[in-house]
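Spend some time on this chain, tokens included, and walk me through the fold:

. . .
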Amino acid sequence: MAGKALIKAIFSNWLVIGTCAVLLLLNILFYYFFIRHQEENIARLERQYSLVRKGKVTKGGRRLDTLISRKKEMDTFMAALPQESAFPELVHQVYSMIQRNGLISGRMAFKPEKVGHFSLIRYATSFKVTGRYEQIKHFLADLLDSRSLFCIDGFILEKNGKEKKVSMTLELSLYLK
């Protein structure tokens, strides 16, 4: 008797049953649209982490190889840079290239500044050279063919009136460690 009365009491209150049914339906929909996708994503990430941990990188393998090769290239580049103590010798090289090409030059004043995370020192200057166009062209070729790393940041060529002479303002940088 008590069981029948309990069932009758539950079914007589449709508001409670309707609310429970709506909550159950919302719970199922929430699981289907939100939680199920997250479970699949978590499972995929766990598999990927397991492969990475075992050393079997699948997708990012090329990226890792690229990073390793770039690190080796950077180490090679850094080893090729001259020491800061070689600075006077490098400036002398520039002056000798100017003289060898028969150019007239202005004064060079190098300004040192620290660069980047690699403890590099950049010496930058801007100076003017004057001569025939062929001489300036050969001077630039000498700079580019030099064993030292001279970086040409920019240059401006100007013709001097009716003369056959050309002036070039050159912005030059040296990187040292």
Q: What stands out?
A: The chain has a mean pLDDT of 83.
